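Regression test case RT-17, inverse folding.

Input:
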């Protein structure tokens, strides 16, 4: 028996959007299929690989296991919400500059997890970055470049914050 659909008000990348779907529909499906935001990827579908990571109220969350009803009214940021093609966000630009990608499938999760870390700790150590990323899976082996990109993003964020306080 099909479950009844409901209307949920979402705040995605600063846009308020009404979504009509079943309450237990995973956020990932709404983002990719309904809103055509392809930053978050479907990886394992179990919340274990990190490819689907988004920020919910600034905290990294696995969108493949988050029912839409649990995020209604919260601020959701996807990879697309961090910057644009012409003006990537600081974390995105650091990943580009450090060439921290091979196949790129894990990058959404890596970038979003680094962003969440920098939101709460703008000057993490390499070990803190490693600890934060240890549950994001990358099969290509770009781990060293990803760590370098995360450290570079932290340096850039520190520069921006210090220049804004002069």
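Golden output:
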């Amino acid at each position: 028996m099909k479950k009844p659909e409901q209307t949920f008000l979402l705040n995605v990348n600063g846009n308020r959007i009404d979504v009509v779907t079943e309450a237990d529909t995973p956020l990932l499906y709404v983002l990719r299929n309904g809103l055509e935001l392809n930053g978050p990827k479907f990886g394992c579908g179990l919340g274990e690989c990190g490819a689907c990571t988004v920020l919910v109220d600034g905290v990294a969350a696995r969108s493949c296991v988050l029912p839409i009803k649990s995020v209604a009214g919260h601020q959701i940021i996807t990879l697309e919400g961090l910057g644009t093609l012409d003006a990537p966000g600081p974390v995105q630009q650091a990943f580009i500059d450090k060439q921290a990608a091979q196949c790129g499938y894990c990058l959404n999760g890596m970038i979003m997890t680094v962003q969440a870390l920098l939101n709460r700790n703008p000057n993490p150590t390499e070990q803190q970055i490693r600890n934060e990323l240890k549950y994001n899976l990358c099969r290509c082996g770009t781990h060293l470049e990803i760590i370098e990109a995360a450290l570079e993003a932290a340096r850039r964020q520190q520069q921006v914050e210090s220049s804004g306080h002069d």
